[in-house]
Design brief:
By secondary structure, the protein is an alpha+beta fold. The protein has a domain of about 120 residues: 2-Layer Sandwich (Mago nashi protein). Helix 3 runs antiparallel to helix 4. The chain has four helices and seven strands.
């Protein structure tokens, strides 16, 4: 009995897909892509677009992450090519603080000069055996990812790491342009 129903349902699906097939060579409407506003739930022809009124951010110059300095923290700083930045401080599951910032005049050229001195080969910027318990760094620049440990950063990378680490602590930052937090009262 069940097999009979399955066969009948299969035949029904098969037959419902047939519809004469020959359209006599009639012209078809050209396929046009669905406008973005419609895909986002908007109305066709509407002028509203997602992100309207938001400034387009400059491309990222460098991303820097510091983990473990002063407890269970994960601090990141993204520097954009126009001298703006974003600081994200996360506190081991207890939320975080997020700030959009402007760098001080002269900070961006100093950072660019320091980044230009980074080693061209390898992915680690650590030499020797740094003391345990220090911060760990991750740096992304020009498609490459570098890692380092506090107390063992190679000489060529120290200026860039020092500048970026300072940005996390507010050194070289001109002003906060926007601030938000999670898990705040």
């Amino acid at each position: 009995m069940v097999r009979g129903w399955l066969i009948a349902a299969s035949l029904l699906v098969l037959v419902s897909g047939c519809g004469g097939g020959d359209d006599g060579g009639a012209p078809r409407a050209a396929s046009t892509p669905t406008p973005r506003a419609e895909r986002l739930g908007g109305v066709a022809g509407a002028t509203h677009r997602s992100g309207a009124g938001k400034e387009k951010q400059a491309p990222v110059l460098v991303f820097f992450q510091r983990q473990g300095a002063g407890g269970a923290t994960l601090d990141t700083f993204t520097v954009r090519r126009d001298g703006s930045g974003r600081l994200e401080k996360r506190y081991g599951g207890a939320g975080g603080r997020f700030k959009d910032l402007e760098l001080r005049r002269g900070a961006l050229p100093r950072l660019r000069a320091a980044l230009a001195k980074l080693p061209r080969t390898g992915s680690t910027l650590t030499r020797g055996s740094p003391r345990p318990g220090g911060a760990q760094y991750l740096l992304r620049y020009r498609g490459r990812t570098f890692t380092a440990r506090e107390g063992g950063v190679v000489a060529r990378a120290r200026p860039a790491v020092r500048i970026l680490d300072g940005f996390i602590d507010g050194i070289g930052v001109r002003r906060v342009t926007r601030e938000s937090a999670t898990n705040s009262p």
